[in-house]
Each structure stands twice: as C-alpha cells, then as structure tokens.
Amino acid sequence: MTALFRMTDVVKHFRVERGTVHAVDGVSLEVARGEILGLVGESGCGKSTLARLAVRIYAPDAGRIELDGADITSMGRRELRARRTKMQMIFQDPFASFNPRATAGRIIEEPLIVHARGDAKERKERVRWLMDKVGLPPEAAARYPHEFSGGQRQRIGIARALALAPGLIVCDEPVSALDVSIRAQVINLLMKLRADLDVSYIFISHDLSVVAHMADRIAVMYLGKIVELADRQTLWRAPLHPYTRALMSSIPTAGVGGKRETLPLRNVDPPSPLAPPSGCRFHTRCPHAEAICSAQEPPLRAIGSDKRKVACHLVTEDAGGAAPAWSKLHA
Amino acid sequence: MAPLLDVRDLTTQFFTQKGAFAAVDKVSFKVNAGETMALVGESGCGKSVTAASILRLVPDPPGRITGGEIIFEGKDLLSLSMREMRKVRGGRIGMIFQEPMTSLNPVFTIGDQITESLREHRTISRADAERRAIELLDLVRIPDARRQIHNYPHRLSGGMRQRAMIAMALACDPVLLIADEPTTALDVTTQAQILELLDELKRRLGMAILLITHDLGVVAEYAQSVLVMYAGRGVEAAKVEDLFRQPMHPYTRGLLAALPHPDDKVDSEGRPLPLNEISGMVPALDAMPAGCRFEPRCSYAVPACKTADVRLEVLAGGLRSAACLRAAEIDQDQS
Questions:
Q1: Residue B85 near residue B76, CB atoms below 8 Å
Q2: How close B248 gets to chain A, by Cα (Å)?
Q3: In this predicted structure, what is the pLDDT of residue A306?
Q4: Using CB atoms, which residue from B188, B193, B277 is nearest to A247?
Q5: Chain A interface mutation, best of B186, B188, B255, highest count of A Cβ atoms under 10 Å
Q6: Sequence-ordered list of residues with C-beta below 8 angstroms from that of A122, at least 6 positions apart, any chain
Q7: Phi-psi map region of B9: left, alpha, beta (phi>0 left; psi -120 to 50 alpha)
Q8: Measured between CA atoms, how close is A41 to chain B, in angstroms?
Q9: What is the distance between the alpha carbons of residues A209 and A251, in angstroms, rounded to a whole number?
Q10: B276: Cα separation from own chain's centroid
Q11: Distance of CA B36 to CAs A81, B199, B321, Å?
C-alpha cells in the first residue's frame, strides 16, 4: 500500500525571545487513501504546528513531507499553490477564516475561482452540489457568515475545503467549539463524506473520545513527539504508553458507576516546550519512571505483529504480547 | 432538613431593544449541605446566568432578576442589600470561574489577593492573614507556598492559577462553592487534577458545590445530583446515578446518545455507526417556542407539546422529575 501522505523525521522549531520552542521534534507518520489518522495531545504538544506543516503553511526545519508521491518539503510558493488543490484544511473557528462580506455561496466558490475551475455556471452548479453534500439548504448561499450558527459555519468551512476535491483534509479541532448535540451532527457529516468521497483526514483534537470514535489509527503526541501509535480499538482497549493511559483515565465518562481511578501524574505541570526534559520527555510526570528514562530517549518502535508503535523504555514484549513492565507489578 | 440553598422559580430577564427575554425561566432546584449539585446544559441554556443570579452578579442593565426566591441558609438572597450581599460573596459563598485571570488581579501578588479577601471579611492581623494564605495554598497543593504567595498570577501555569483562585474562594470557609465551568479551559490531565482537588476539599471542609458545566462526564463522576437545563428551563432533575441509568427527558436521552464512545457499535468495515443527532439547534432567545422549548427538535413530540407549558413534574416517587408530557411513557418504554 502506498501512502497518500507521508512525513519523515519532520522537525519544526520556533525561535522566541526566551529560547527555542521545540514544537515538532522528529515526527514520522503516514496516511493512506481514505484513512482517518487521529492526532491527539494536550496544549503545547505540537499538534497544531504539525497540522500546518502537513499542508505546508509552515516549512519544516528538517525532514521530508510527501503528498501523492511528490516531495513537497521545499516546494516554492507557485508549485505549492497547484498542490493545495489536493490538500485542504479546516479549523476550529471557521468564522475567522471567512470574509465577513462574502456570502456563503461565494466563500465556497472562492477556491474554484482562484484555481480557475469551470465557468461561472459550472461553478454555481458545483457550489450547489457541495452545499447539498454538507447539508446546507440552497437558500443559504445568499446569506452572510454572521447569519449562521457555529455548526452551520463549520459546514460552510467543510464545503469550501471540499470544493477542489482534495485527497487530504487536515482538520484542526473542527468540533471542539461545538455543543454536544451539534458536534454529533458535524462528526457524522465528516464520517459520511469520508465514506462517500474516499477523502483522507488528519484529524487533530485534544479530545480522545472524539478521536477514538472517528479515527482508524491514532497517534498520541507529547511535547513535540509521537509517543504511541495504534489503531483505534487497540489504543482504547490496551494503551501502552503511560501518557496515553493518563490521558485516557483523565476523561470523565458519562455513565453509571461513578468515578474511574485517576492515574497519578507525578508533577502537576507539564514541562515547557522551551526546555523539554532529557531522555523520555514524559519522565518528569511519569509515575513509573526509572533511571534510564531521564538518561536515554526512547525510540518510537514497533511492538508485536500489528502496526502499533510505542516510545517507552518500560514496555516489554514477551510470550504474552506487549505489556508495560509495571503492569506485572500490579497484576 | 432544610436544604442549604433553595432556588424557587428563579426568573432572570434581559431587556433589549427587541423586548424582554427570560434567559432563566422559573428555574427551581435545591443544594443540600455537603453535596455537589450540577447544573448541566449546552451554550445558552441559562446555567451561567442562574449562577450569576444566585450571586446577584447579573449586569443590570440589561439583565434583571424578575421573579422567584433564592433561599440560602434560611434567608432570601434577593432581599439583601448590595452591602449585605458583598458579605455573602467571598464569605459564606465562594466562587470560581472558568478563566482565573478574570478574577485574579495581575498587578497584585497571589498572597496579597488572598489576604485582601480575608481582611475584607474578617478582623485579622496582617501576619495572621499571611499565615492563613500560606495554609490555603498548601491546602490546594500549590508547591512551595511560602515562596508562591509573593508571585504574580502571570507567573503561574493555567492549572496553578486555577488552584490559586480556589484558595482565594476558600479563604473565609464558605459552606457553598459556586464553580462555573472551573476546568473548561484546562487540558484533560490538569482538569482531572483540579476536579479531584475540588472533590477532596468538599469532603474535607464539608462544603457544598454548585457545579456549572457543559460536560456530562464531569457530572457523572463528580456530582451527586443534577439539573439538566435547556433553553432557560430545567428539563430534568435527578440523582446522578438515576439520570445516567435511566434518562427520562428526550433531551437528556438525546444528549447522552450523541456522545462518542470508543465502544460504539461498528459496521461490517469496522467503522463506528453514526452518533445519535439531535436535529436542528437551540432556539434563539427572541424566538422561543410557545409550548415545550425542546418540541421542535424532539423525536417524541406530539401535537400537545406545541402548546403545553411543561414544567418539572415529580416522577418515580418524588426522587426525580422531568419536564415532559410523555416522560412517564418514555420511562416505561425503557424498563
């Protein structure tokens, strides 16, 4: 299987007054055609920088980015513009990216005009089709962004992203600002579009429950690195990395049975991406950390026969399959 | 035993050029001593205006409390003068908000702000107040409290600021803490730690918490009783276990089914089935349906719902209530 999108050892640092932010520090991942790759992590983990690298809003400091077989790592502006038809992005707050004086119809049509697709009549036809696809009534085309609710604005953003029929859409927290009942509508829409159009998503969220519902595979990021990568079921049923486990047990679950046990995290504050800890970046908060964890950086390595990967010194493989070393202590 | 806080038919209206609209429309609930009671709902349901009304912090104009009673420790807070109310706020009732920087003054140290709050409510020497401030920072587990009281808010991380705000709210030993989305701006691991802390403090200090949240997961794990709000009204009230075991109002049921869960059923390709959707959206304040406010979105609606003024009605032997004409039927349908 050839990947639609591939990132290899990508690094992006930002120089700021007080030092260097290690936003993305050696990340490799790939996305197959029609696949949803979930990317989950907390603020400052570098997930939004990664999104902007993927669509080449940012250029990486090192590493390689490929889309559809072409190396886009250091493409210039003009070449990139042509490539943008194949990769689009949707944001948490689409309103901020809309021209407030353009109608919804015009906003959706914009990419078609910029890339000189069809004549006016064909474009109108396409806009009508897109609006229908995302569940907006035809008369909405004449309305302005401020007349729409949050959920409808996100539909406009999705229609605009789909206008040029891209292979890849990078979704940066697209449902995080929405209320639960509206969020379900948008999640279902994104899932339906993926099935109908065979488009791929890199779906970024801080909310593991949303990612675990939508994504085929999930990458967990912590301070600029991927610490665990697995398919959704595996990650949810048997997370290996202590950070993934902490993240999962921190999600309050709506259901009967009261409180789940919260894993203790050693230090209350996540370290600053300005000065990531030595060795494993999670060792300052990890309840299981040993001497090796602060001394050596654990590589992201494949575990077991399946496609899962984890970056933790303490995860061992034996006859019983992969297991974290400490779990035996509690068994 | 009388409840600690008894809110009866609270109505808060906003007066605009388009007319007067009730953001909170005859909302009633009780908070018992030592319990966590949650007000839960989506944006615009009136939960925050309810909290602000209890504290009498609704900006006037445009808002005004136009009806109801707020009985706290036997006294109607609505009958107090502003001066008496200031004594209650930060005294018997503590409060914390989503964004700590809105309550912390950036030009004063953490210690200054806690001691100020103490000296406002009590006769206490400067040295004693400082000792108490250190004690409070220890209580909320801010490491190295002795040094931190001299720090300014911007030096602290989001989670630490939230802790400092909790310390401030606890300064005068409140019996009720009103927490309006206290963890919404925080990362999940930090959120879990703050909620654990609040839960522990509640037990240790024997206070009650009125928790305002949009997150049903937080309700399930940290509250004992709950009022679900929709479009300015209470639609379902119950003990927390009952609500999640057997939601009775169609809105509550819809909300719970709209939550993604990794164990959701999958199709033949291993892809999860669509989530339950609640069609449409919350009506605007100036366009509320005449009858049940959820009727336009409700899959159980019958013609009578369009006109009936449905209010919380006691069900199941008085332990719970739902504002729905068909609640009893829906309940049977489940069991």
A1: no
A2: 14
A3: 64
A4: B188
A5: B188
A6: none
A7: left
A8: 9
A9: 8
A10: 25
A11: 55, 9, 18
Q: Return the bridge partners of A21, or none.
A: A14
Residue of A nearest to B142 (CA): A268
pLDDT digits (tens, 9 = 90+) for A238-272: 899 999 999 988 888 888 765 666 667 876 678 88
Q: Are the beta carbons of B234 and B28 closer than 8 angstroms?
A: yes
Chain B 123-142, residues with CB within 8 Å of chain A CB atoms: 141
B202 sits in which H/E element: helix B188-205
Q: Do B159 and A233 touch (CB under 8 A)?
A: no
Mutate to test the interface with B, among A146, A149, A181 (most CBs of B within 10 A): A181
**For residues B205, B207, B210 and B212, what is the CA-based torsion angle, rounded to 10 degrees?**
0
Strand order in the sheet with A36-40: A87-90, A168-172, A200-205, A36-40, A217-222, A225-231, A308-310, A301-303
pLDDT at A268: 62
Residue A181: in which H helix or E strand, if any? helix A180-197
Closest Cα in chain A to B199: A259
Query: Considering only alpha carbons, which residue of chain B is nearest residue A259?
Result: B221
**Structure tokens of A158?**
């999705």
Cis-peptide, bond into residue A277, ω within 30° of zero? no
What is the spatial distance between Cα B184 and Cα B229, in angstroms, rounded to a whole number?
A: 18
Record: contact A252-B241, CB cut-off 8 A: no
Is B217 at the interface with chain A, CB within 8 A?
Answer: yes
* Nearest chain B Cα distance for residue A291, angstroms: 24
Percentage of residues in chain A with pLDDT exceeding 70? 92
Does A213 contact B241 at a Cβ distance shorter than 8 Å? no
- pTM for the whole thing? 0.89
Q: How far is CA A184 from CA A187, A249, B213, B317, in A?
A: 5, 23, 18, 34
Mean pLDDT, residues B234-239:
94
Return residues 250-279 of B near A (CB < 8 Å): 254-256, 258-264, 270-272, 274-279
Rounded to whole angstroms, the Cα distance separating B214 from B45 reads: 10
- Edge-first strand listing for the sheet containing B233-239: B93-96, B176-180, B208-213, B36-40, B225-230, B233-239, B320-322, B313-315
Q: What is the pLDDT of residue A329?
A: 44
Cβ–Cβ under 8 Å, residues A252 and B215: yes
Judge whether B284 is closer than 8 Å to chain A, CB to CB: no
Top-confidence residue, B333 or B246 = B246
